[in-house]
Amino acid sequence: MAQTVRPVVKARTPISRAGIELTKGFRFPVSGFRVQVTDHGPQTTEHGFSLIELMVVMMLVAMLFAVVGVSVSRSIEGAEIRNASREVVAGIRHTRGQAIIQRQQQVFHVDADAKTWTAAEREPVEIPEGLDITINTARSELTGENAGGIRFYPDGASTGGSVELLAGERTWEVEVSWLTGEVSIKRESDDA
User: What confidence tens digit (pLDDT) does each residue in 50-105 have?
Assistant: First the structure.
């Protein structure tokens, strides 16, 4: 006699996302709400948010915007001083290059009162609003109380000195070596 095997049939029972068996039309309480299972899934009979919930969310969003706003303004200020410092470096290097190429002395000039700097054979450049500029140079190169220059010689050497750009507590310093005329830039404050 041959043994017969019964066919296995898998049955499906509707189950909610939480794992509770539900059947159509069955109602049960969940956290004080009544849930009714329909063809579209469980639906609560209570809808919306309370005023307190909305106010908490609005306060969180306002705090987020305040933090982001301060962060954005600080990074814009940092970008301005960084960009202005790089422009000063380019102007100083241009002046040194012109002294070497033309085989005659050239001066990079800074006027702190007018908030401008001038590279050799170029028009004065104004620094962005909100920034200050100072120059530390040899006494012989001072042209006023808050103005002076860094002189470059045909061999590439210079009188040396530094140009500082300041924005609040942020300071970037562009240094010029007197012996080689080499230009370097450094950030003196940690938060820039």
Answer: 889 889 999 999 888 888 777 666 666 778 888 999 999 999 999 999 999 999 99
Structure-token pair, residue 97: 């290059």
CA 126 to chain centre: 23
CB atoms within 10 A of CB 25: 8
pTM equals: 0.62
Q: Which helix (H) or strand (E) holds 93?
A: helix 51-102
Query: Any idea which fold 78-187 has?
Result: minor pseudopilin epsh fold (3.55.40)
For 111, the 3-state DSSP assignment is strand
Are 156 and 181 spatial neighbours (Cβ–Cβ below 8 Å)?
yes
- Rounded CA separation 189/192 (Å): 6
Cβ(167)–Cβ(81) below 8 Å: yes
Q: Provide the Cα torsion 68, 73, 78, 80; round to 10°.
A: 140
Q: Where in the chain is the domain with CATH 3.55.40.10?
A: 78-187
Residues in the chain: 192
